[in-house]
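Limitations

Structures in this collection are predictions, not experimental determinations, and the ligand pose is part of the prediction. Treat each record accordingly. The example that follows, with ketopantoate as the small molecule, is included so readers can see exactly what is and is not provided: the inputs are given verbatim, and the output is the predicted complex.
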Amino acid sequence: MVSDNPSVALIGPGAIGTTIVAALHEVGRTPTVCGRTAHPQLILRVDNEHIVVPGPVLTEPGDIHQPFDLVFVATKTTQLAASAAWLKVLCNENTVVCALQNGVEQKAQITPYVAGAEVLPSVVWFPAQREPDASVWLRAAPRLTLPDTPAAKRVQTVLQGTRCAVDLSPDFISVAWRKLLQNAAAGLMVLSGRRAGMFSRNDITTLAMDYLQECLAVARAEGATLGDAVPQEIVAGFQRAPADLGTSILADRQAGRPLEWDIRNGVVQRYGKKHGIPTPFSDVIVPLLAAGSDGPG
Ligand SMILES: NC(=O)C1=CN([C@@H]2O[C@H](COP(=O)(O)OP(=O)(O)OC[C@H]3O[C@@H](n4cnc5c(N)ncnc54)[C@H](OP(=O)(O)O)[C@@H]3O)[C@@H](O)[C@H]2O)C=CC1
Ligand SMILES: CC(C)(CO)C(=O)C(=O)O
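Predicted complex:
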């Protein structure tokens, strides 16, 4: 039985995690924050305002003594196994775990760690950028889309009245694949080492459009209902974006961290193979991203 005032924890107070923690803190619902580094405070910059959430961030799973009603997971997917000790102490079968991560495989990836809790995938639409001092620059209005299920109502209640909007979708698979296509194309920024401004080039537009057609065929085979205009809409979105807008996978590349190449790009190649769909663009892009992430060399 969940109270009217659910207990909330968040694992991974980086770009997305800090945004959600600050949004909750602003309305007096500061969650328990679990991380890897004991940041003394979390700072979110929005326009010219700074929201400061006092710390320190917890770093010892042994400091948690009871399970929570709602747990947000905002680590990178590459950091999931390392977050298992947190999930173990924060979850029981009554917990809802909301994945604030990219990809279309969140439920399958997180479920093994959560002691019978229900895992709720989400689509995180907003860009947030972590600065060298670990403060976070929120670069658009925060918005999440969740599948329209009873568990999602818990997330909606917790975020109600905060600056983070929550939409519920009856066709979540299509929304999730629409975002996956955006992330797949954003991966091209890693290969050029450039930000969104590169999409003003005709050659990059052609490459992105061809790659997105391949991704669209795989998305449809997986059951997503996406129109023919989606590749064009995605490229146009990058062309409208500020030229210096990056993507989280580019930030990881530039910092020499492991990349979420498999859940953002590899997934198209893997599912293409499953459905017998040729993926010539993925067959070039994926090994380059994988090698850039994992080496050797
Ligand atoms: N940034 C963006 O604009 C967007 C990101 N996403 C997705 O959201 C997810 C999170 O990305 P993002 O916020 O950018 O990631 P960040 O790298 O900014 O943040 C990850 C956070 O997880 C923490 N962490 C790492 N390992 C552990 C661990 N073992 N236990 C607890 N905490 C840990 C990190 O700790 P430390 O503080 O020590 O670094 C950091 O605070 C990704 O799947 C990404 O693809 C989706 C949409 C937009
Ligand atoms: C910024 C955005 C929304 C698009 O690529 C993103 O998902 C990311 O940076 O990981």
